Amino acid sequence: MQINTPFFKQRAHDALADENLQKALAKLKTGFPEKRAIAVDRMPEFEELRNQGRDLKNHIMEHLDLYLEQFERKVIENGGHVHWARTADDANQIILDICQQVDAKTVTKGKSMVTEEIGLNDYLEANGVQPVETDLGEYILQLRHDHPSHIIAPAIHLNLEDVSEAFHANHHRPKSNDPAVLMQEAREMLREKFVAADVGITGANFCVAETGSTIIVTNEGNGDLTQTLPKTHIVVTSIEKVVPTLEDMTLFLRLLARSATGQEFSVYNTLSTGPRREGDQDGPENFHVVLVDNGRSEMIGTEFQDMLRCIRCSACMNHCPVYGAVGGHSYGWVYPGPMGSVLTPQMIGIEKGGMLPNASTFCGKCESVCPVKIPLPKLMRHWREDEFEKHLQPKAARYGLASWAFFAKRPTLYKPYTRMASWLMKSWAGKDGRIKKLPLASGWTDWRDMPAPQGKTFMQAWKEQQKTKTGEQR
Amino acid sequence: MSATIKDSSTRSQTSRADIFANIRRGLKSDSSDTQRQQTVANRLSAKADNLIPARSQLPPAEQVELFKTMATEAAAELIELESLAEVPQACADWLTQHHVDQLNCASDTELSTLDWQPLDEQQIGRNERVAQVGDIASLTCSFTGIAETGTLMLHSSAQSPTTLNFLPDNHLVVLHRSAIVGCYEEAWKKLRQTFGETLPRTVNMITGPSRSADIEQTLQMGAHGPKTLIILFIKD
Predict the structure, then answer these.
(1) What is the tens place of the pLDDT at every residue in A448-470?
(2) Does A163 contact B226 at a Cβ distance shorter than 8 Å?
(3) Which is a GO BP term held by this UniProt record (chain A) (predicted)?
(4) Distance CA B225, CA B212 (A)
(5) 92-151 of B, contacting A, C-beta below 8 A
(6) CA A141, CA A328: separation in Å to the nearest integer?
(7) Is the pTM above the cut of 0.90?
(8) Which of A316, A350, A392, A418 is placed for a possible disulfide with A338 were both Cys, Cβ 3.0 to 4.6 Å?
(9) Is the four-CA dihedral A281, A284, A286, A289 of positive or negative sign?
(10) Which of B12, B211, B216 sits opposite A160 (nearest CB)?
(11) Strand, helix or coil for residue B105
(12) In this structure, are residues A242 and A209 in contact, taking their beta carbons and an 8 Å threshold?
């Protein structure tokens, strides 16, 4: 996928002016967060589940190599194949090779963010294999040559009219504005595709080391048809998804649906273990798991290891004021919202992804709803520090900070200059005490007035307060 | 083509070595670290429970009531029957009412040995095969029901093809009252008792019928899986 992260500012600007997008985002803000709150209220143990989820994920990361080895062993024991992909490129070639081995013409796909991350669809298509997205949201996006703007509700940026138009243009049926009719249309269109596909590709929410199973968590049932009907099932997932046992997987299942859609449990939680067994009348004859790294193994042992706990529920973006204002496409790559702001620089480099960790107010809401308690604001701050150390920020920001630091380190200069600046700003303000335009701060004053400093400077006020305090103590 | 396969398998091998080297470097450990190995072996063999919510540890009778409440909340239909022998009549009634003239059944002995006369009387066809596009209704057994969220657990077998659970528009499932457990953990234990170390190819946990909210965040029932899920609840 094309990387547009450096253009975050412009994209966010456009998103704010996009009426249709704003209509869609308004719905999101009340939808998922309210449903999550209700589900959490119904589960008195939720907070303790979060603590256990955090601790278990930490345990897994401390033993990641060993659990991966065990998982690999079990998949092979069950008659499946395991492939390792250090980079997106490795993953794409491995997947294409599996498809070519079975002379695949078409491939059905369940929803998978890892395949978005590696750009699988474009790669397959360029090499003569036609991918067919079967998740309703992803299907709509494929028809529109669009990309997901949310990790679990990929078409959340679209309105009914957009879907209606896309279906009308592609299905050659009378145009409808009834969501039920549109969904039935997609159901009918995809039925034959499911059966005709040579290969089915799904992601995995978790990989169970104990049994060598992968699990998908879905509501539509497309993932199940994708992995059951074709002769070959390829699971494309990433290395941090491994969990020790079925019991350990269960801990995360209790957290996942509630944090994501606010459901008690998703409709379909399906475990796949190897290819079809002797006597089975359906199910795939070949079972492959492609374990993608793409920068994750390098996060182990660093300050970003905490990010590997992420179970991709989307709670952080659902509650994020920035995501809620500008939507997922503004972020310019695959993963949006707070989790995307931490992951993206890791995957595409801080040089390109540096805008994202800066697009946060650090309000902390994301961390407070994260089912595995990832300190997202802290991790975004790490990226900002990294960016500063590598001299990647815009010159204005760097010189601004440097000159402030010069004064801040010299109190005899700092005190009179802040007094002067405060006086200057007061004189710029109108009668209402607000500044309409401020040099070097148009990013603020273009949209709102800047309140002029009132009364004394902080240093003056501090000094006086200390005096009174010491007076009182006497 | 063989050249690319070889290349692809080399890529996988090289990747594997790099990935493990990175992880072990990050953890400042190597594969011969026996303490970590022991920790992992212990966890895998203990299969210990994590926190189980109080909700799913009720006395059996209340557990059954919770199952019914949660399954209904997830939009499953519940038909209560006195015994397994009533299943054919219940199917005949439901299918007639919904103008369906064909039922595709799993071939579990429990189902195939029933007296299917009631279907014949309504001229409803019955067969035992994998599901096909266009199938309207299927009937399968379930392995257990999990009260915590009203979830059915089914698994694939020679008698019970997985497509029956997903392709037809309507899915009828037999569940015995005695098969209901409180939490998922009990279901895993039951699976291990039945199958030992190797799980069936597919284990399905199903909570209500298929749905999607991908069009304008409006919840619609019946996306790609069954539009209705009917639980034939046997009170024995």
Answers:
(1) 888 888 878 888 888 888 888 87
(2) no
(3) lactate metabolic process
(4) 10
(5) 129-130, 133, 148-151
(6) 14
(7) yes
(8) A316
(9) negative
(10) B216
(11) strand
(12) yes
